[in-house]
Amino acid sequence: MPPPETRLFTLRTMAGAPRIELRRIAANPGCGTADAGQAVIVFLHEGLGSVAAWRDFPDRLCAACGLPGLVYSRPGYGRSTPRVPHEHWDARYLHTQALEVLPALLGELGIRRPWLFGHSDGATIALLHAAAFPGAVTGTIVLAPHVFVEQKALDGIARARRAYEAGPLRERLARVQADPDSAFYGWCDAWLAPAFRAWNIEADIAGLRGPLLAVQGEDDEYGTLEQLDRIARSAPHAERLVLPHCGHIPQRDAAQQVIDAARGFIARHRGA
Asked: Which intervals hold domain AB hydrolase-1 (predicted)?
């Protein structure tokens, strides 16, 4: 099956007017739950992700929920404007995406009160955005989120760097990134910088009030369940799902369980 078509959208309200690769998913009226005016599910990819890296998961989730979707590649990823060579993303690069890029994109596309669905770095962006703009989000689902830095994550990223520079990982990323060096070194160098060890967003997300589902695999290679524990301290109302025999990519390792959980979560909180 050929990859779905994407388009480049110029984000005119941002400095430099970056091009954003995006794909819209139409609601499926055949499932019986689609409703005119229902909120869009916005998919926020991981640190090495892109529109293409999601594969068909967004289509499956949107079909199950009867909702439209938006999948996009952040600047530096996919076919979006690449990172400038030698540009270093600082410890607030996820804040920039959550507080500047995402609001600008949603505003220019006319998307109001979306459901946010984020994975890994994208989960962190979702948490930051939902906390900062509580009235602008219907609900938030996060997979393998990061709210503080664990040595396990740094060790995993160091392994990824060795695999990338040895060749195989770069070849795999080239299938979903127009400029794999842009995506990989932007992410890797930010996380492995000494200043990033103190990175922590617990205070930033203390204002989370809307519906929140946090999901993590028991065998996550980049984090422990302490991530979910700390989210619960900041947002005691958060729902929690721990998946056995599942690694850092629940939408791949336990796709149907994630879809079922997300569909139930959205159904419970529609109209909240």
From this structure: 41-261
Residue 106 near residue 14 (C-beta atoms within 8 A): no
- Residue pair 129/103 in contact (Cβ under 8 Å)? The answer is yes
Q: Dump pLDDT digits (tens) for 205-239.
A: 998 999 999 999 999 999 999 999 999 999 999 99
Q: What is the largest CA-CA distance in the chain?
A: 51
- The structural domains of the chain, with segments of one domain joined by +, span 7-269
Looking only at the bridges linking them, the beta strands covering 19-25 and 69-73 are antiparallel
**Looking at 27-66, which runs of residues are DSSP E strands?**
41-44
CB atoms within 10 A of CB 66: 19
CB 142 within 8 A of CB 125: no
Superfamily designation of domain 7-269: Alpha/Beta hydrolase fold, catalytic domain (3.40.50.1820)
Strands (E), 131-211: 139-143
Two structure tokens written together for 261 = 């959980």
Query: Rounded distance, CA 199 to CA 82, Å?
Result: 25
Burial tier of 161 (Cβ tally within 10 Å: 0-12, 13-18, 19+) = middle
Q: What are phi and psi of 214, to 5 degrees?
A: -115, 125
Per-residue pLDDT tens over the stretch 155-211:
999 999 999 999 899 999 999 999 999 999 999 999 999 999 999 999 999 989 999
